[in-house]
Amino acid sequence: MKNLNEITDKIIGAAINVHRVLGPGLLESAYEACLAFELLQLGLKVEQQKPLPVVYKSVQLDCGYRLDLLVEESVIVELKFVDQLVPIHKAQLISYLKLSGLTVGLLINFNTTILKDGIQRIVNNYLES
Questions:
Q1: Which of 18, 26, 82, 87 has the most CB within a 10 Å radius?
Q2: Distance CA 5, CA 28 (A)
Q3: Chain-wide mean pLDDT for the chain?
Q4: Confidence at residue 61, expressed as pLDDT on a 0 to 100 scale
């Protein structure tokens, strides 16, 4: 498995390429499909709309949560197209990280003039004991 920093760097680079070509103004699903394509071209394993169950008191429940992208089985990518990222977007990604047991996620808002202004790397240090 690749280093998490290498993986997130490749995801960010691919997202910037997609944004450079498409610009802002499309549906999240278009950015998701194009980003998944770019990541596959880079040789990364990508899963789109991966179901994320909730485990409650040892029972697995399907509550309809889905990860936009799961890259290399280790990085969650949550895509947005909003005026600006707000705390609930970060909270959503942190919850996904907790539920999945993963530690790193990227929150990417494609509704920006310069994409790097719409990217947040989230590290979840919460470990359940």
A1: 18
A2: 24
A3: 91
A4: 77
pTM: predicted TM-score of the whole model, two decimal places: 0.90
Three-state SS for 82? coil
Asked whether residue 108 is domain-assigned, the answer is yes
The position carrying tokens 């994409």 is 115
* Partners of 105 in beta bridges: 76, 122
Helix/strand/coil for 113: coil
Residue 8's Cβ-side half-sphere holds a number of Cα atoms within 13 Å equal to 19
**Does residue 89 lie within any of the structural domains?**
yes
Domain that holds residue 36: 4-123
Whole-angstrom Cα distance, residue 72 to residue 24?
Answer: 26
Q: How many domains does the chain have?
A: 1
CATH number for the domain spanning 57: value is 3.40.1350
Question: What is the spatial distance between Cα 121 and Cα 104, in angstroms, rounded to a whole number?
Answer: 7
